Amino acid sequence: MDISNKKLFKQQCFINGEWIDSEDNQVLEVNNPATQDILGTIPNCGKNETKIAILAAEKSWTNWKSKTAKERSGILKKWFKLIEENHEDLSKIMTFEQGKSINESRAEITYGASFVEWYAEECRRVYGDTIPDILEDRRTIVIKQPVGVVGAITPWNFPSSMITRKCAPALAVGCPVIIKPASQTPYSALALAALAEEAGFPKGTINVITGSAKDIGFELSTNPIVRKLSFTGSTEIGKILLKQCSSSVKKVSMELGGHAPFIVFEDAEIDAAVDGAMLSKFRNSGQTCVCANRIYVHEKIYDEFIDKFTKKVNKIKVGNGMEETTISGPLIDQYSLKKVQEHIDDAVNTGAKIATGGKLHSLGGTFFQPTILINVTKKAKITYEETFGPVAPIYKFSSEKEVIEMANDSPYGLASYFYSRDIGKIWRVAEALEYGIVGINTGIISKAETPFGGIKESGLGREGSRYGLDDFLEIKYINIAGI
Ligand code: SIN
């Protein structure tokens, strides 16, 4: 791997402060989705190695939670500084293994680091409460304590920031973590662990284990020592993990699938809406759970919006993410490519037209043409299922009531977006959308300071912001009598 700090490229797991292989020395290969070159290998660990990591985390807990918030904050700040110092190498590692453009990787490293910085500050403000008691001789206080060992299962689409978004708050309040990164993108996780080691986290506080998602996921979700499981991934896998977590009644955070509506009202600033749709839809080649999946445009501005949007989409440069001018990289694998093609074919068979794109890109592999579908109908699969690719389906609507009904007609409830300049409509629509996140006149809603999370089948809990700390804390009520 062409990076300057070679110490960041680790091909072993990090457990109990040591770099180790799997028990039977089995490995998995990791490839570059842009070239199909093998980048290296990772240990193919399973249940036994996970148990070892869980015991190491448990052992480290007593020491880690008893540090002052200021001490933990200091170590997190060092980690943040090291991430900043190695920013370019971390960005390159991400593009090599994930495929996204180098500029998007740079933005993700900055985004990911912001969680470490923010929680290093916020952990010093984990306040309790006092409650006036009903009895004269009694006093009541509420304190917050770390939940315990945390399992964090993270996805391939954001290989760095989904780790810091879970682990920074957990570590900041005193919980040790065991990270299971996606097998397609383990090197970003291992590089973060290398920097955490350098920052001085005590051994066992941060562990990264690679290998079988099924076996590691099973152990993390059923072992009673793990008190909290935080997962980002599909709703399908989230439901399995939720069931498994119920055996030991764990606290859970689930960041699952999304199917974001993106509504452009007749009073919207059309150019701004086009720019917002570009950012929301084509970030990471459409492989985000918050990207616009259904673009609803008012009939009065439908043609103008499509015309302007198509011109911009046609300018997207698809290519190897390592080229500075690339905007859109490849899809992660053949499975994703197949799903994208299937959604397009199905939409066309149910009445939609392709305004641009629609096919495999001339670069081959898993590169796909940025695509716009118009006149999409309710019958199309894409109207209900998450595509996770660079396809923008556009629907026409004529009234506020109609579009709210269409937007809410989904089992998902993660992100939603709309464009309008009418203040009354802004309040009405923001309150009516059944989503955990509403972006108004913007296509980008993610930041460390704000609560990211969904309702309905999009998940449970929140990440980022002060609400994200609560997901790693237990509330204890203390009642003192005989005062
Ligand atoms: C995701 O798609 O999984 C996360 C996107 C974000 O944090 O913006």
Summarize the structure.
With 483 residues, the protein is an alpha/beta fold.
Description:
The chain has 483 residues and is α/β, with parallel strands linked by helices. The protein is 38% helix and 21% strand. The chain is built from 14 helices and 22 strands. The strands form 6 sheets. It has a 7-stranded mixed sheet with strand order 14-15-16-13-12-18-19, with helices on both faces. Strands 9-8-7-10-11-21 form a 6-stranded mixed sheet, sandwiched between helices. It has a 3-stranded antiparallel sheet with strand order 5-6-22, with no helix packed on it. Strand 18, helix 13 and strand 19 form a beta-alpha-beta unit. Helix 4 (102-122) packs parallel to helix 5 (161-173). The longest helix has 21 residues, at 102-122. The chain is globular, with a radius of gyration of 23 Å. The N and C termini lie far apart (66 Å). The model has no long low-confidence stretch (mean pLDDT 98). The structure holds succinic acid (SIN). Succinic acid is lined by residues 155, 157-158, 232, 288-290, 446, 452.
